[in-house]
Amino acid sequence: MTDKFVYDFTEGDASMRNLLGGKGANVAEMTKLGMPVPQGFTITTEACTQYYADNETISEQIRAEVMQHVATLEAKQGKKFGDADNPLLVSVRSGARASMPGMMDTILNLGINETVVATLAAKSGNPRWAWDSYRRFIQMYSDVVMEVGKSYFEKLIDQMKAKRGVTQDVELTADDLHELAEQFKDEYKKEVGSDFPTDPIEQLFGAIKAVFRSWNNARAIYYRRMNDIPDEWGTAVSVQSMVFGNLGDTSGTGVAFSRNPSTGEKGLFGEFLMNAQGEDVVAGVRTPQTIDQLRQQNAAVYDQFVSIVQNLEKHYHDMQDMEFTIEDGKLFMLQTRNGKRTAAAAFKIASDMVDEGMITKEQAVLSIDPKQIDALLHPQFDADGLKAASPIGKGLPASPGAATGKIVFSAEDATEWTTKRGEAVVLVRLETSPEDIEGMHYAKGILTARGGMTSHAAVVARGMGTCCVSGVGEIRFGADEKSFTLGGREFHEGDWLSLDGSTGNIYGEQIKTVPAKIGGDFGRVMGWADQFRRLRVRTNADTPKDAAQARQFGAEGIGLDRTEHMFFETDRIAAIREMILSDTVEQRKAALAKLLPMQRGDFEGIYEAMEGTPVTIRLLDPPLHEFLPTDPEEIKALAADMGIAVADITAKISELHEFNPMMGHRGCRLDVTFPEIGEMQTRAIIEAAINVQRRHPEWTIVPEIMVPLVGERKELAFVKKIIVETADEIIKAAGIDLHYKVGTMIEIPRAAVTADEIAEEAEFFSFGTNDLTQMTFGFSRDDAGKFLGAYYDKKIYENDPFARLDQDGVGKLVELAVKLGRQTRPDLKLGICGEHGGDPSSVEFCHRIDLDYVSCSPFRVPVARLAAAQAALR
To answer: Quick one: the chain helix, strand, coil %, rounded to 5?
Structure first.
């Protein structure tokens, strides 16, 4: 156990953030800078960790240290807890090392009871202020510490205002507030079963425990998971002597930013209220005044505040978010922190501060959260519309952005409603499959009841830049397959639905969206990022349109082109089905010959879009049954088109059925069984490269042919032989000097541990971390969402391993494969093409283990570029 759990504000500074939390460290730093800060002490994050280690009890050592610091604070202030002559009141605030919305709200006026109220009323000559402070404390303590909801108390306040015929809280008299305090205590006893605590020490330790507990409330756990904040960090608790903004018209409270957090414009931005306490400003009970109006109220305080704001921004080299209180004409700074800002503001502030000489280009790049970039590239909800709406449910934020549209339940309807009726639609499905690709393309948003962050819906939606919310297990579909229930409401085809793919929130109404905006500051800062990064950034793209979009976002090649996605287009699904249903090699080759010009055209379009940058094309990967219909009517139609008996098609579907298709007849196993598939795809890849090279002699086209799901060197050698013989024959006949590479995806654990052998055949490795994670953990990425919630609740996992790379397990396999592969082939090119390629923490891991590139969906390319730069700078 550590020997110190509590620090006075005078003992700390900004460097102690991990121990004192952001709030405690910044208050200590302001104290050190000589700013007017109400004094107090901070209970460390280690005390929070110890609290949980001791089965959620506060140890005697921590208790003793707190009491010692209470005594020191009492001596400094010349006041004592609960004293009838000169009582001490404090505020209690939570503060983790990372800013975390969702943790415990502030408690003000702690230490107050009826004896103290009488003293405060007598000494101030302001009984209204005294009773207002008491009723606020009862309300906050009941809500935050004892979890009695705010609504009970708000109802009592509304009843009192109605009874007195007034509309504002400030119009209630001292007697009204006294009566409210008594009603609040009665409500507390009714809900909790005991009297409201009057002992200040009991109040204090109740509040400290509440802060520690809030570290593990559902909101905080969810926020940590979404923002890669470890469970073991814990939160600190700051106890600060009270200053009062509700003493009268010469007192007030406010919140301000050193720059506009929405736009990034330089200049003081904020609000304040006179005769109020902190929560009044954000609660919206009264309309605050803008910060510039403080000059009219008290010019000296305004000028002092402006000076402090400027000094804090210069000191921290970042935009500051500050809370302040004015007590009887005297300014006090309660806290400061680096301010939350929109993505657009983040880029403007970073760019402006470089011009102002306040930060370097390196610091500018490091100042922006890569995850924020999503908000710049996708539509967002109109702020006012979103504020007025309430979510009816929540799922996984599988693909960012905002979408609103009319509900449809099939991909076909999504296509028809969009193309023929001109309607904006949201596609709602139990889960999506590759055959839904066209409808997914037309939908504004996608909602699925099943699936995780790397499900088919999530991966495809991210590639298209389409909003998606997945894994909403609470959805219940109607028997008519044209309705569902969620959040106690029933929705039918054609009803409005809105999705927030950045938060996972679902709204049962139409909410206006606003288009994404990218300003010049974005390009400027991203240009700096590109100067600093070592990792190259490619994209996962299956169509020329996706490839062109990725190039606009700065992609330096394609790391994964999934050829199977091309087969689901209406004009070619018949040919692939004919190939699958063939009984002989000749029949299969005839069907594949129909696909050859289509595939060749696809690849030419992609080479053109990528302008001579590297293109990695994966051979056919999914099991063949995915291309066959399951609906009886579709089976009949297919039988009629092909002149085959329905029974024969049904038999073939049954024959192809697998109990675990993701570990079945797929990937390189298809080319081992049916070499003609590999031959046709190689021919399409090489012929397309030759055609584009001839059209563009200024480019150097070097196709990278990737063999999927290899687990044994001899597998790769067999397929490579097909590729090399086919490619060399075509190149020789064309009389052209064209180079190509053959490599493999490392997505089976056995491939990782035998990478030295596989590298004898492979010229490059691309880590397919979606499947590698699935096979290493031993659970399906499409089904894991059903039980991962329980794993988060029970602290078994902190994060979804499909969204953030498991560096302790899967990461070790990747590191091992890197080491073994380069032992055999020192010039082995190494990259990652799973969805982890766009996750900032995973990008940092890839930099650390010396991969050459990461590859991700087009709309995550800028995220990966910035994350790669930050990894290099750190």
So the answer is: 50, 15, 30
Whether 165 has a pLDDT exceeding 60, the answer reads yes
Cα gap 372→351, rounded to integer Å = 16
- Strand intervals (E) in 97-196: 107-110
Q: Are strands 445-448 and 425-429 parallel, antiparallel or unpaired?
A: parallel
The CA-atom distances, in angstroms, between 151 and each of 37, 60, 93, 176, 735 are 33, 36, 22, 19, 80
Q: Which two tokens stand for residue 361?
A: 């280009």
Reported as a pLDDT band with limits 50, 70 and 90, residue 624 is: confident
Strands 489-492 and 396-399: unpaired
C-alpha of 706 from chain center? 31
Q: Has 317 been annotated as catalytic?
A: no
Tell me how far apart the alpha carbons of residues 575 and 578 are, in angstroms, rounded to a whole number: 5
Q: How far apart are the first and last CA of the chain?
A: 31
Torsion of CA 705, 707, 712, 718, to 10 degrees: -70
Token pair belonging to 397 = 């934020």
Q: What are the E-state strand segments in 242-350?
A: 252-259, 266-274, 289-290, 320-327, 330-338
615-618/402-408 β-pairing: unpaired
Selecting among 467, 668, 833, 846, the annotated active-site residue is: 833
Q: Which of 522-536, 573-587, 643-657 has the highest mean pLDDT?
A: 522-536
Q: What is the pLDDT of residues 33-70, one digit of tens each?
A: 999 999 999 999 999 999 999 999 999 999 999 999 99
Q: How many residues make up the chain in this entry?
A: 874
The SS3 assignment for 852 reads coil
- What region, left, alpha or beta, does residue 21 occupy, with left being phi > 0 and alpha being psi -120 to 50 degrees? left
* Average pLDDT of span 517-541: 94
Dist. CA 552–CA 559, nearest whole Å: 16
DSSP string, 78-117: T-BTT-SSSB--EEEEEEESS--TTSPPPEEEET--HHHH
Q: What is the mean pLDDT of residues 452-461?
A: 76
- The two three-digit tokens of residue 665, written as one number: 């007849």
For 196-208, give the DSSP string: PP--HHHHHHHHH
Q: Taken in order 39, 45, 50, 52, is the CA torsion positive or negative?
A: positive
Q: Catalytic residue among 178, 378, 456, 565, which?
A: 456
Could you tell me which of 383, 436, 427 has the C-alpha nearest to residue 405? 427
Please tell me the distance from the alpha carbon of residue 693 to that of residue 690, in angstroms, as a whole number: 5
- Let me know the angle formed at the C-alpha of 783 by 561 and 810, rounded to the nearest 5 degrees: 60
380-409 pLDDT tens trace: 898 889 989 999 999 988 888 899 999 999
Task: DSSP letter for 288, please.
Answer: P
Instruction: Determine how many CB atoms are found less than 10 A away from the CB of residue 402.
Output: 28
pLDDT band at 102 (very low <50, low <70, confident <90, very high): low
703 and 712 Cβ atoms separated by less than 8 Å: no
DSSP 616-634: EEEPP-S-GGGGS--SHHH
Please report which confidence band the pLDDT of residue 374 belongs to, taking 50, 70 and 90 as the band edges: confident
SS3 label, residue 282: helix
The SS3 call for residue 741 is strand
Which alpha helices (DSSP H) does 506-584 contain, by range? 520-532, 544-552, 573-581
At residue 639 the predicted structure's pLDDT band, cuts being 50, 70 and 90, is: confident
Based on the residue annotation, tell me whether 468 is a catalytic residue of this protein: no
Sheet holding 266-274, edge to edge: 289-290, 266-274, 252-259, 320-327, 330-338
Cα distance between residue 781 and residue 747, in whole Å:
14
Judged by average pLDDT, the poorest of 575-579, 682-686, 729-733, 741-745 is 575-579
Sign of torsion over alpha carbons 531, 343, 265, 267: negative
Q: Please give the helix or strand (H or E) that residue 280 lies within, else none.
A: helix 278-283
- Quote the tokens at residue 356: 């102002």
User: How many CB atoms neighbour CB 254 within 10 A?
Assistant: 25
